[in-house]
Amino acid sequence: MNRRPVAPRSETRQPPSFFFLLSAAVAGYVFYRHGETWLRSLLLSLSRSTWARRAVTGFGPAWRVASRFIAGESVDEAIAVARQLNAKGLKAALDYLGESVTQAEEANAARDQILLLLDRIQESGVDAYVSVKLSQLGVKIAENLALENLRAILARAQAHGLRVRIDMEESALVDTTFDIYRRLRHGEGFDNVGVVIQAYLYRSEEDVRRLIEEGAWVRLVKGAYKEPPTVAYARKADTDAAFIRLAEQLLSERARARGVHLAVATHDDAIIRAVQRYADAHRIPKDAYEFQLLYGIRRERQEQLAAEGHCVRIYVPYGTAWYPYFMRRLAERPANLWFFVTNFFRA
Ligand SMILES: Cc1cc2nc3c(=O)[nH]c(=O)nc-3n(C[C@H](O)[C@H](O)[C@H](O)COP(=O)(O)OP(=O)(O)OC[C@H]3O[C@@H](n4cnc5c(N)ncnc54)[C@H](O)[C@@H]3O)c2cc1C
After folding, report:
1. What pLDDT is recorded for position 17?
2. pLDDT for res 35
3. What is the pLDDT of residue 3?
4. Is there a catalytic annotation at residue 219?
5. Calpha distance 164→185 (Å, rounded)
6. Taking the domains of the chain in order of start, what are their residue ranges?
7. Ligand 1 pocket test: which of 235, 333, 336, 340 has the largest number of ligand atoms within 8 Å of its C-beta?
8. Reduced to 3 DSSP states, what percent helix, strand and coil does the chain have, rounded to the nearest 5?
9. How far is the CA of 303 from the centre of ligand 1 (A)?
10. Which residues contact 62 (CB under 8 A, 6 or more apart)?
């Protein structure tokens, strides 16, 4: 029987269908437009995942990458970093890492570590204040627990002539954070406590209006958590525009007359320049505000701003609970993820 010649494989293969090409093009375009948003969203979800925390922290080289953003595990290392920053003309905001604790003992242990930190700042004479998270002090267990822990911290800080800033966490905690802040700041007269405003939240315009009337000590940030579009801007451009709007309100003559002091906390050059232009145009003295950046990010820019005569404060985290903080830093910049992945495979 004559066998029919078999065509070479390439000749028998069907050309990709129009629909396949169209789907690939659409997928490519969507990834190009939204890939970074998905990646950010994934990393922020993983920052709350227990299995991912175990996988990352159990992997030795992860610390090598994380330590770019973290001063070390001990209070001594944090003080040493603050001293190095001070020598370069930079101030520090020290943060004992930890968040979302589920046991009162953990919250109380965190409070004790922060009290120790305040003592060490005072003894060493470094120019630093302290940042705390209410979820680290037990707010998710009971509001009263966080209130009592923060009260103890503010009292110790006051005795040492130091300040404490309450970091802002996910949107579900914003009301409670302001309630606790106001009880201690206005109800009990602690004038050494400040708060944070996240520009991505729609509500921040209203919060800023109120904080201006109260003459608050405010750090303005873009916002680092995964929030739904019902509460926060999804587009970077909208958050950036809101940041500049809020910064201008917090630097206004009325705000300054009420005693507001603003910390502009960003690495975004366009925003830093916009704030500088506004301050120059309105002859705002440099001591009415300060710039804040995170430890390990844009180090040259930090020193350059200080050399220009600005007050610059570096947020310095330390401690063993570095996983969620590290994941938020990865989410902010895909290049950091690439650095992490290459170290992962090199190990
Ligand atoms: C001092 C300080 C305190 C903060 N406190 C809080 C808080 O209490 N609550 C809260 O929700 N958020 C806080 N944040 C985080 C903040 O909300 C942003 O997530 C973070 O600052 C990144 O946004 P960006 O303003 O730098 O602008 P982006 O638009 O994210 O970045 C602008 C540029 O900065 C550089 N950059 C930004 N992030 C990184 C990074 N991780 N690694 C390397 N380069 C980077 C890049 O060049 C990037 O192009 C704080 C930030 C700072 C600086």
Report:
1. 57
2. 61
3. 47
4. yes
5. 11
6. 27-70+330-347, 72-321
7. 333
8. 55, 15, 30
9. 17
10. 56, 326, 340, 343, 344
Distance 226 CA to ligand 1 centre (A): 14
Architecture per CATH, 72-321: Alpha-Beta Barrel (3.20)
Would the CB of 220 count as within 6 Å of ligand 1? no
Is the full-model pTM beyond 0.85? yes
Cα–Cα distance for residue pair 193/142, rounded to 1 Å: 21
Mean pLDDT per segment of 10 residues, for the chain of length 347 residues? 45 52 55 68 87 84 86 96 98 96 96 98 98 98 98 98 98 98 98 98 98 98 95 96 98 97 97 97 95 96 96 96 90 76 64
Determine the distance from the C-alpha atom of residue 65 to the mean position of all C-alpha atoms in its chain, rounded to a whole number: 17
Question: Which of 213, 135, 148 is CA-nearest to residue 174?
Answer: 135
Tell whether ligand 1 has an atom less than 6 A from the beta carbon of residue 40.
Answer: no
Q: Whose CA is nearest to atom 44 of ligand 1?
A: 297
User: Which pLDDT belongs to residue 14?
Assistant: 54
Q: Which of 219, 313, 328, 329 is catalytic?
A: 219
Q: Is 36 in the pocket of ligand 1 (CB under 6 A)?
A: no
